[in-house]
Amino acid sequence: MRPWHREDRRHWVLARRSVSRPEQISYYIAFCPADTTLDELIRIAGSRWAVEECFQTAKQECGLDDYQVRRYPG
Predict the structure, then answer these.
(1) Of the candidates 26, 27, 30, 36, which has an alpha carbon nearest to the alpha carbon of residue 11?
(2) The model scores a pTM over 0.90
């Protein structure tokens, strides 16, 4: 968990439980400035969902959600 130990940084592990589906838990590993508070980490981790929803909406509006990239060995 600490591959990049620095005195001015800290490692955190956050667990987030879904309100609508309590059995669903998401985990985050954070590497941040030592003076970062738990409240700041929670706010930043929560903002990730808003960004993902924006990307998903944009893909749907452009029709890109119907396509999947296939990678072929070679």
Answers:
(1) 30
(2) no
